[in-house]
Sequence to fold (199 residues):
Amino acid sequence: MFEKYFPDETVSSTYDIDYEKLYADGYRGLLFDIDNTLVKHGEGADDRAKELFLRLKKIGFECCLISNNKKRRVYMFNEDIGVHSVFNAHKPAAKGYYYAMELMNTNLNNTVFIGDQLFTDIFGAKRIGMKNYLVAPINKREEIQIVIKRKLENVVLSEYRAKIKAKLRAREIEKGIQSQEKREIKEWKKKRYTQLRRQ
Fold:
């Protein structure tokens, strides 16, 4: 029912993602939401954010900030970061994501989106087939309209986690069946070998 909102990956923080591995896997462009993804809502770039983007540039990534906020907010954060940016993106509309890829000269196959909201950030990325990471919001104290959306997000995430657990359980069962089959084949071969020796 809610699969179209399910994130590809979930992590506790933007700063916990293994960006070196993403680059090794062939990804070259990173799209970031700003508020509650990189910093608390309305704050400028802190030392942690500055260090992250320096690291990403050294790795070789093209980066772009994509926000539904106005130009002033995005430019204020980007002043000390110095990456591409898209303001008034109207996420989950697709045009902002495509424009960001155009700025970075990347495509859907080598671009990743990182954000903290399911119904804007993640849904927008998923609807165009872009790999995405859902991160936990940095600040739990949010505006009332966001709080309401978080309650709806929790419903979706509960189903998402249940399906992940079911998949993991199914894999465990499959591994158990395969192991049992291997043991039975091995035992049969052993018995057959013994029978042939006695003949």
Q: What stands out?
A: DSSP finds six helices and six strands in the chain. Helices lie at 19-24, 47-59, 71-78, 94-104, 118-127, 144-198. The mean pLDDT is 86.
